[in-house]
Structure formats: structure tokens, C-alpha cells
Amino acid sequence: MTFTTESSTANFAKVFVSSNPNAVARVTSDFTALNVDEQLAVLWFLYTKMGRTITPAAPGAARLQFAEGLLNEIKQMPPQDQLKAMRDIAACVNTPISRAYGVLGTNTKLAFWYQLAEWMKEGSVIGVPAGYPVSRASSQAIAAIEQLEFSQQITVLRNTVANMGIDPLA
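C-alpha cells predicted for OCP N-terminal domain-containing protein:
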């Protein structure tokens, strides 16, 4: 299956997730069960599709200036190093980049991934390649998230990005 916003919406619109509170926990668990590359692809897709609504959901509290240095460091890396840095953050590998990410607040982490997705769209940060073959589990995770109410979607994203990276203070 080819990874596109159109195919995901068309092929998986029939998947239904109830609006009960357990849905958030189940969808979050399904997302975190994906491998790191699948998680990155799902994040990219969600931010591409929902990005305009995600950013306001992380209001002024998303002090992106706290992440600017880290974002710029990633942006200036060669593409394969950018991908490695994102993988390390998602996999909670203990690296300087992952530790720098780990100390960010949750809303700042949401904004961090939004900024990376924006740079991916413009081509200044390595993105998901066109035609990326998405796994069945990834497609199901995307569909499940899309079926949640907006506040639940944001909660799932917060839960997932909050648990990425290494918090050296913990």
C-alpha cells in the first residue's frame, strides 16, 4: 500500500473508535507498539493532515523558542543524520539530541514535531519518501486516530510525543 493522505482517508474511513475514554489509551498503546519508522511516518501524516489544528491546540504555552536551538541543529544536519536524530528521539535512545528533547514541555514537544513536519513539507528536513509503503498497523493507527474526537486526537499526540526522548532530570 502506498502512503498518501487520500488513500488513508478513503481506505480506512470505515474504522470506528468509540468516543469513550478507553479509546485514547488503546490508540496511544497501538501507536507506541509501532516500530520507530512507522511512528515517524504516522506523526508526519498526522501533522500534515491535521497540522493547522494541532498548533493552536498547543497554545502560547508551546514555547517553541525553547526548542529553536535543537530544531536548528537538526535542520543543519545532513539528511541521514536528521533521520537518525528523529529515530533516536522516538526510540528514547540516550543521545545529546534525545536528552535536549526530553527536557522540553509537552506542548513544546507538540510544536517541535509540527515544525519538523513543516520543514519536511518544504524539503529542508528529510521527510517520508513519496510512495512510502505504510504497514497495515500504521494504516490502522492513522485510521483510529482520525476517528477520535479532536480533543482525543490531541491527547493521543501529547501522550506519544511526551514519552519520546530522554529526560535527564527524571
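Residues 36-57 form the longest helix (22 residues).
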